[in-house]
Write a structure and sequence with these properties.
heterodimer; A: alpha+beta; mini-chromosome maintenance (MCM) complex, domain 2; 2 domains; about 25% helix; B: mainly alpha; about 80% helix; globular
């Protein structure tokens, strides 16, 4: 282990830190939109756009059966879905800071938040 | 005499490639328990040894052969996993060449930087295939994790090269 190795290590740590905080800042900045929309996709097409700041229950149909999307306090979840495993509703409440979409394979539906109109 | 030398080199390269493939398969089967997809990148050891023993061309050959053959053995050739590992290997080989042969960094740094190249290359390919820009958030974690894994692979490579009596 030479001095140059330690310098490279330090460099990596610094770059990682800068990247981490930079991405965090960008994320926070982009979340400060006035209108915040989430989308429900069915077979890659948007079938429903919802304002995450309006509390409401939406109804729609997937390939397997009927489902509902509940939006409350800037968060959303899938309820009363007809599917074999109920993975989508077991994901629970999702918010804008969660980066993963809610996916329901049997219904060919996913719910994703994109931050802007 | 010439012929003997070239046969010796060919046998060496074949053995290195076989070891790289075996290590790769072993690692993906038994050492894939860590979070965020962090891996040791043990096959990188072979790349380091090859570039020291022979040179750039041979290292590229072995790396590409490793990706081709190990995905062929797994039965996922030309699937998305193949392209992901090809992206990783290409970027890591590029890093290896630039850092070791171009900038002449010591071997531990080379190992760490090529580990970074591997993970960043993979993440970039995944981002392209699945159109998921948010995957960028994993890059800082992978950068930090490539320090211990890079040092580990560097240590093993240095130990091996010492036993092979190569001047570093």
């Amino acid at each position: 282990m030479k001095k140059k190795d330690l310098l490279v290590m330090l460099g990596i740590v610094v770059i990682a830190g800068v990247l981490y905080f930079g991405l965090k800042l960008i994320n926070e900045f982009s979340n400060k939109e006035e209108e915040r929309f989430g989308y429900v996709y069915y077979r890659n097409q948007i079938i429903l756009a919802f304002d995450i700041d309006i509390d409401k229950v939406y109804d729609f149909d997937g390939s397997y059966g009927h489902m509902q999307l509940e939006v409350k306090d800037g968060k959303w979840r899938i309820i009363n879905e007809e599917c074999p495993n109920h993975i989508c509703s077991s994901m629970g409440w999702m918010g804008p800071e969660d980066l993963i979409p809610i996916v329901c394979m049997p219904n060919e539906v996913y719910v994703s938040y994109e931050g802007e109109e | 005499m010439m012929r003997n030398q070239s046969i010796k080199k060919m046998v060496y390269l074949t053995l290195l490639a076989a070891m790289a493939i075996a290590i790769n398969l072993f690692e993906s089967a038994y050492l894939a328990f860590m979070p965020f997809g962090i891996r040791f990148g043990l096959a990188n050891i072979i790349a380091l040894i090859t570039i020291e023993l022979f040179g750039i061309q041979e290292m590229l050959g072995i790396n590409l052969m490793r990706v081709m053959l190990s995905s062929l053995l797994r039965g996922t050739i030309f699937g998305s996993t193949f392209w992901i590992s090809a992206g990783g290997v290409l970027l890591s080989s590029l890093c290896l060449i630039v850092v070791r042969k171009g900038l002449k960094f010591p071997i531990y740094s080379t190992s760490m930087i090529s580990a970074i190249g591997h993970s960043v290359g993979q993440v970039m390919v995944v981002m392209m295939i699945y159109q998921q820009i948010h995957l960028m958030y994993i890059i800082p974690i992978l950068l930090i994790s490539s320090i211990p894994t890079g040092v580990l692979t560097g240590m093993i490579a240095v130990g091996t090269l010492k036993r092979l009596k190569v001047q570093l």
